[in-house]
Amino acid sequence: MRIGLVGVGRIGAFHAATLKGLPAVDQVVVADADANRAELVAKDLGIEFAPDVDALLASRLDGFVIAAATSAHADLLARGVAAGIPTFCEKPIAHDLADTQRVVELVEASDVPVHIGFQRRFDAGYQAAAAQVRSGELGFVHHIRANTNDAFPPPREYIPTSGGFFRDCTVHDFDIIRFVTGREVVSVYATGANRGEPFFGEYGDVDAAAALLTLDDSTFVSVSGTRYNAAGHDVRMEVLGSLGSVAVGLDEHTALRSAEAGVTFPGGEPHATFMDRFRPAYVAELTAFTEVVAGTREVPCTVRDALQAFRIADACELSRHENRVVSLEEIAR
């Protein structure tokens, strides 16, 4: 099959290389707002490039991958749907809730499959935890702890377009909580602080945050994260049940050390970036997209899944600003 990709920044170039290596993919064509950058990436990977998105969409694509800047997602999704091309889009769908809802309505009114990129759903650890929760092996789940700790902060220029900490960073936790538990969030209480570089605060953002979520079965979920974790990129989840507990992301590469004498676990090199941590998941995710394109698999992460995660993030942002518990019913469906 022939897959087109728009946006060849860090994650886009990574996706292009991954797609090139998939058995189902015969050709990869890339485009970018900077045509010269697209040409350079194409030459480096030995793939094709298109001078712009119009040319890309007109090049007989079987599938369309969106890895461009967030501000372009909504328009590109609409163009993929209008062209009738199965589309994969990195999160988020759009910059705000209103545009997200508009795109969801557009996609759901069509018969074009659209797969949103929440790669943790394809991580073996999260999939194993989900299976144990749903089989009843853990009994009833009473608490979940989830964290996303980045090893280093993004550049200053990224923050004004990021959507804020909850929409950009912990939105992955919000999605995977729904995936692992099969439940919905009914209320949130969130807070945050600017502990590092002042530019986060200058844009009304935070670089450390925490939230307490309550699920519709009364499970409590604590979510925390930071932009400053020099020990390494640390993404984990602990699922605590009445019959047993399980941890995701607890292995030799966990960016955590024990203070107890004689304990040497974990002893491996910590992950430096999210691409190190989730490399196999990204391959599995794009493999799944090729199956969607081929018509042999249903979309594994829909636009409505993305909308639900965005609603939770919006609720957390409102809670942080107003210092109160926010019901998800307050956030437009």
Sheet-strand content, in percent, reads 15-25%
- H and E string: EHEHEHEHEHEHEHHHEHEEEEHHHE
Q: Which value, in Å, is the CA radius of gyration?
A: 20 Å
**CATH architecture assignment name of the largest domain:** 2-Layer Sandwich
What composes the largest sheet?
7 strands, mixed
CATH superfamily of the largest domain: Dihydrodipicolinate Reductase, domain 2
Q: Could you name the ranges where pLDDT drops below 50 across 5 or more consecutive residues?
A: none
CATH class of the largest domain reads Alpha Beta
Q: What is the count of helical runs?
A: 13
Mean pLDDT: 96
Distance linking N and C termini = 36 Å
Question: What's the number of structural domains?
Answer: 2
Strand order of the largest sheet: 12-11-7-10-9-8-13
- Helix percent reads 25-40%
Categorize the overall geometry: globular
CATH topology of the largest domain: Dihydrodipicolinate Reductase, domain 2
The tally of strands reads 13
- Tell me the structural class: alpha/beta
Note the topology.
Blueprint: E1 2-6, H1 10-20, E2 27-31, H2 35-45, E3 48-49, H3 53-57, E4 63-66, H4 70-82, E5 87-90, H5 97-108, E6 114-117, H6 124-135, E7 141-149, H7 159-162, H8 165-168, H9 171-181, E8 185-193, H10 199-202, E9 208-215, E10 220-226, E11 234-241, E12 245-248, H11 274-277, H12 279-294, H13 303-322, E13 326-327
Helix pairs in contact: 4-5, 5-13, 6-9, 9-13
What does this structure look like?
The chain has 333 residues and is α/β, with parallel strands linked by helices. It has 2 domains: 2-119 and 283-301, 3-Layer(aba) Sandwich (Rossmann fold), CATH 3.40.50.720; 121-273 and 309-330, Dihydrodipicolinate Reductase, domain 2. The protein is built from 13 helices and 13 strands. The strands form 2 sheets. Strands 12-11-7-10-9-8-13 form a 7-stranded mixed beta sheet. Strands 3-2-1-4-5-6 form a 6-stranded parallel beta sheet, sandwiched between helices. The longest helix is centred in the C-terminal third of the chain and has 20 residues, at 303-322. Residues 1-118 form the Gfo/Idh/MocA-like oxidoreductase N-terminal domain. Belongs to the Gfo/Idh/MocA family. It comes from Kribbella amoyensis.
